[in-house]
Amino acid sequence: MPQHASPDEVLARRHRRCASALADFHLLVIAEDTTLTRAEAVREMDRLVRRVLDEVHAAETAVLDALAGSDRRRPAARLLGGRLDRLRRAGNQVGAAVRAGDVLSLRRSVTRFDALSIKTK
Q1: Confidence bin at 1 (pLDDT 50/70/90)
Q2: Structural contact between residues 77 and 61, judged by C-beta atoms closer than 8 angstroms
Q3: 90 with 46: CB under 8 angstroms?
Q4: Chain centre to alpha carbon of residue 118
Q5: Out of 10, 34, 82, 120, which could bridge 62 as a Cys pair, Cβ 3.0 to 4.6 Å?
Q6: Residues contacting residue 23 through CB under 8 Å, at least 6 positions apart
Q7: Do residues 87 and 68 lie in contact, with contact meaning Cβ atoms separated by under 8 Å?
Q8: d(C-alpha 14, C-alpha 43), whole Å
Q9: Residue 99 pLDDT grade (very low, low, confident, very high; cuts 50, 70, 90)
Q10: Whose CA is closest to 62, among 23, 19, 15?
């Protein structure tokens, strides 16, 4: 990313990358005719969850950098840190459900992960 990019441009780029990762995540979750083994699906799900988390974290960092020196930075850091923590826990639940082969738990955890990832955008 160019050094002269505005905070809005940086954030928009991170949102696009996060949306791309979420789209891939959804495709993997709904794929009924996948040729992946469970072990491969677990690795791919972990990779996609990590990708979403990385993009959300990068967007959070861009927001906090833009607020540097502002009275709003500290409360924003607390709010965004809490959101990222909830998203990380939801991602862990997705991984646990995939590993266990628990379809109902996977549906619940994917819905939660999706809702939290959209909320952080």
Answers
A1: very low
A2: no
A3: no
A4: 8
A5: 10
A6: none
A7: no
A8: 23
A9: confident
A10: 15
Say how far apart CA 58 and CA 50 lie, in whole Å: 12
HEC-encoded secondary structure of the chain: CCCCCCHHHHHHHHHHHHHHHHHHHHHHHHCCCCCCCHHHHHHHHHHHHHHHHHHHHHHHHHHHHHCCCCCCHHHHHHHHHHHHHHHHHHHHHHHHHHHHCCHHHHHHHHHHHHHHHHHCC
* Tokens 């909830």 sit on residue: 86
Over residues 31-62, the pLDDT tens digits come to: 755 677 878 888 888 999 999 999 899 989 98
Number of residues assigned to the chain: 121
Residue at 56: amino acid letter: V
Task: Using alpha carbons, select from 87, 26, 95 the residue that is nearest to residue 56.
Answer: 87
Displacement of CA 11 from its chain's centroid (Å): 14
Residue 61 and residue 30: Cα distance in Å, rounded?
A: 31
CB 53 within 8 A of CB 87: yes
